[in-house]
Amino acid sequence: FWILTKLFSFKLWHADRLYPLVPPFRFLENIPNYIHLGLFWSALFGLFLIAFNQKNKVLIAITLTIEFCSCLLDQNRWQPYQYQYFITILFLLCYQKNSKQFLNYFSFLIIIIYINSGLHKFTGAFLYSVWETMILHRFFGLEKASIDSLFIHYSGLSLGFLEFVAAIGLLFSRYKKIAALLLIGMHLFILLLISPTGLNYNSIVWPWNVAMILFLYLLFCRESENYISWKDLLKGYNKIHLFYLGILPIFCFFGWYDNFLSFNLYSGTLKRLEICIENKEKATKYEQFIKNKSWFCKSGSVIKVNDWSLKEMNIVTYPEDRFLFGVIKKFKAQNPEIEATYIITQYPYQEKNTKYYK
Description:
By secondary structure, this protein is mainly α. It has 15 helices and five strands.
């Protein structure tokens, strides 16, 4: 599934593209495209070999190092599924001789994903952007008048609540199968929602949803034994995994840690960047990404950066300020002839939550 995901987002691993690369460190700027492609194909080949040789620690370590270096060249590559797959193979490397420990941490990772994903949905942003707009209006075709009732509006919170409760249920042998089946049902609905028969949106996560269904079945439905052991989680160096998976994501709720590394998924709370172009005739190379309608853009020509990212690379934009400022800086440097206003906004879409840059 990791190989499939990388192939589905092939352009993401290129440097030869319109969407700018924004590495976390300045010295990683202007790395030649052949380095990006070399890392991509090497990592892909390494993953293919690991599938048939899971006990070769040297091979796993080299592949993870290559993947890590590749991700350092562009923060947009720090997608949540990429992070999950990387950690999973890291667990394979760390606990290769102890399958019980591997299953313990793999189960912990899956549970943490659902806990964080569920908690991030307890917001008005989720109710407006995902529940009302995506699910009720665009998918089920309900008109705004039908959605306006308080009961229907706030009933959307039950989705996050069920995801969170199911995640907690995975911790207990008695309830884990029921909880896993609830979450499998959620993934089946998500696949229907974003499939070509639904909204035909964000196809990069189709394999991820299928993978999560299989993980839930293998970890929580097949066996009566519960793999989670708090004693092992708190033992020695194992506390490191507990720290970056269990503790650091909490700081995301205060804006102190990255959203994708905290598995903030489909919450509607992520920041967005729009580029309002005032002289459209100078931006012909971006013509396929330019739209004529925006809530904030007065010029009539706008590039919604998330849509641009989806069209060119098949991934959503990394939603952190430092990354969005990096995109602005690169766009201005690459297109000095384009007059534009750059708008970073976040739900609720009001002036107080909107920043304008020239």
